[in-house]
Amino acid sequence: MNKGTAIYPGSFDPPTNGHLDLIERGSKIFEELVVAILRNSEKSPMFSVAERLEMLKELTAPLKNVRLDTFDGLMVEYAKSIDAMCVLRGIRAISDYEYELQMALMNRKLEPTLETVFMMPADKYSYVSSRLVREVAQAGGPVRGLVPDVVEQKLREKLDPAYKLRDTNLIEVPRKTEKRRKKKA
Ligand code: PNS
């Protein structure tokens, strides 16, 4: 077994800055990091596996010890097939912990030799998730700074013309409150 290979499995629909942050951190501590996209996800994805692979390929190009792959079925079986000894997962907040703990323990039950290693992304990404990025983008909100530029561009292409991406990552607060305050006075 190659102790240097770790797998970073996920849906990456789409990849966020939080994912990229974790990939960069993981690539520094493992000899080889295999970013593995789950193919048979039950959810109806926004991006096809091929599109997600393409985005991740561009994002991880500078990281020479990072490899991309896709997998089906049990993650532990895939990890075994590539001789990975560790699974890398990110924990952003306490709310992630329960699900990640369950998954890590279930994976340990299925394959006791596979260790799960948790890392924390930079705190500025602690609230960023693919699901929220999709939700904000689908509603026409700005996602700059939450996803890499290439992903922002792909979101724009996918959702255009409904997606009117704003040039700022600040959401303007309506000035109604100000008016209401003046009326009351
Ligand atoms: O990015 P996500 O959606 O949180 O990733 C979840 C993922 C893909 C890591 C997880 O659902 C998974 O490993 N699925 C493969 C099927 C499997 O092995 N299930 C048992 C997990 S305990």
Walkthrough of the structure:
The chain has 185 residues and is of the alpha/beta class. The chain has a domain at 5-125: Rossmann fold (3-Layer(aba) Sandwich). 42% of the residues lie in helices and 16% in strands. The chain has seven helices and five strands. It has helices at residues 17-29, 49-60, 75-81, 94-110, 130-138, 149-159, 176-184; strands at residues 5-10, 32-38, 66-71, 86-90, 115-119. Strands 3-2-1-4-5 form a five-stranded parallel beta sheet, sandwiched between helices. Helix 1 links the parallel strand 1 (5-10) and strand 2 (32-38). The longest helix has 17 residues, at 94-110. It starts with a strand and ends with a helix. It binds 4'-phosphopantetheine (PNS).
How do the helices and strands line up, and which of them pair or pack?
Blueprint lengths: L4 E6 L6 H13 L2 E7 L10 H12 L5 E6 L3 H7 L4 E5 L3 H17 L4 E5 L10 H9 L10 H11 L16 H9 L1
Parallel strand pairs: 1-2, 1-4, 2-3, 4-5
The chain binds 4'-phosphopantetheine.
4'-phosphopantetheine binds next to strand 1 and helix 4.
